[in-house]
Amino acid sequence: LAQVPVNRIAVPAKPSARKFLGTLNAKRAPMVTCILVISDPARIGLAQTTVNLWIKQTYQAKQLVIVNATGKPVTNAPYAWIKEIAVDPNQYATVGALRNKGIDEADGSWIMPWDDDDHAHNHRIAFQMAYRADEKCCVMLARQIRIDVRNNTVCVFKDDLAGLPSTVLFPHDSARYDD
Length: 179
Known about the structure:
The protein has 179 residues and is an alpha/beta fold. Helix content is 20%, strand content 25%. The protein is built from four helices and nine strands. The chain has helices spanning 17-22, 44-54, 95-105, 124-130, and strands at 6-9, 32-38, 62-68, 82-86, 110-113, 138-141, 143-148, 153-158, 170-171. The chain has a five-stranded mixed beta sheet with strand order 4-3-2-5-9, with helices on both faces. Strands 1-6 form a two-stranded parallel ribbon. The chain has a two-stranded antiparallel ribbon with strand order 7-8. The protein is globular and about 40 Å long. The termini are close together.
């Protein structure tokens, strides 16, 4: 991603109630487009669960763009704010190329990757939007809880450097991924 200022936040974080609640109002809030990319048909079930959890996000001015290179639909959800784009896996062979396609299709003024295995807190988008320092600042989470259902373990993953790249929130016009 381009070199832009980054705000790191540790969750749980507590923005002021007024600032946080303001992000829940879709009429005043900037739109955030979350980009879910999927290229492995074996991960369709994960992606479907992720979409169902994403729908529960409390931030109202949101859109989900699913860039799908599997040949199988992830969702048939009748939501106007979910857009699924089927792409040729030969033309979009890398995660970067798939995410860039999602950026191209995004309607939001802010972009956030949403991995096919993300099970985020219902306020994740709202928290990150509340912590923007200005209109050109990226926001990354510094911690996340990771759950391994195969081994029945839970841990807090902490990044002491720049933040967790899969949690970046950035202005639409500020970045592209390496293809």
